[in-house]
Design brief:
mainly alpha
Length: about 450
Amino acid sequence: MGHGLVAVPRRLYRSADISAHLRRIQSRALSVHERRMNAISTLEDLESQLTQLRQRKNGISRDHQEWIEEIADGSDLPESRLLSVNPRPASAAIPAVITDRYLAELARKLNRARHKRLRFLDTWDNLIQDAVETQAILNASASKQLDFGTSSPDSSLFERLRILTPYTRYLLHYHIFPKCRISLAAILSLASICIVWSELVKFAAPQLSIIRFTVVSHRRSEGGKVHFAGQIMASLWMCYMCTAALASFGDIKVWGNRALVKRKTYGESATWYAGQVAKLTVPLAYNFLTFLPPDVHRETTFYKFLGQLINLTPLGKWFDFFFPIFILVPVCATLFNLYGRIKGIFRFDMVKDDDEEGTSSSGTASWREGRDLIERELNGSSRLGLSHRPPPPPQTHRDSAPSDTNHRTTASRPAPAPPAPPATPPTTNREQHQASRLAAATAAAEEEDESFFQGFAHR
């Protein structure tokens, strides 16, 4: 939460500058394109292994042949590629003897590689669309007319509405939205300061807590009750605290390769995010209750149900009061860019901060190369079979705004990739049989290779 209290307002403030926002998008293009290519290459290597296994006739039992066919049926490979005479050579050597453990690991890697490819394809498409829209907003500064062109099928209802004229849309995106972002960033910055201040003084001087003052009524006749207005303020404070905590999941790299993809989220990632939300709900709610006076938070339903079980011993009471003070560590680290200093000294990147890219001399070359990548993608010259987007007409100029700005902006807007045809689902019995074999092989492999520390972390 400490990282999000600084990162969320700063991100809103920096997005108000349209030209700087476009440069940051261009700086991200190189890393996103490289990750997309790596995901594509990894998936092709695994699919090549699957193709060679399917063509192999010796050293495979009948059960393993059926398992390989089930894996092939669940993949998105066309039949012509599976039956290819000269498949792509696999980077990893296929063992001479095929075991259950090898097939289980191959099936797991294929599943993860497919979802990773979908993730970075979606990230690349969103980046291209953001770059085109931001460039269109910049180009509209001369003509005072803004038209984003035809909406994609994946656009929201608000984006599909065409109730605004081009001039009104220009005023909205070029003048009103940036000022709203700056205002919201200022409000959230003050809210972050209030949360950090309340964490610091809630034990030494609880009467100085700003959150306590905004939630609890201070009229003497009411005796410190929480009315409807105070409940609304409490819900707003908790909503912002949860948003700050969840916003850091995409920046901190210790979470691995898990990500949320629109309509294509991997089941493991969705379960992990749901678990994180469930784990953060209780401590955030209890921490917020400690901002309030004892005679108020002890009368709440949450404290009677769970809070009194947390505050059983003096050790737990002192821990509840002093541990939230350590929120200053991630707040100061994010505010003064200590993560970047650690990266420069130890070559270990802990937090992904895309807003800091493009500020150095090497970053200048980075955003220029990213700009060229985006232009080639829009011109259709770098379509390597990774995207089904049709080549649009010539794209917009990046520095000047000619008279046909609206026409070029409309033409350069990338069309969404058409949905791939769904693979033929296997039968229910085959799915259950494959799942049971995969679970048995995975459990056997984990019991064989798991060390003490791995077992402890797994539990």
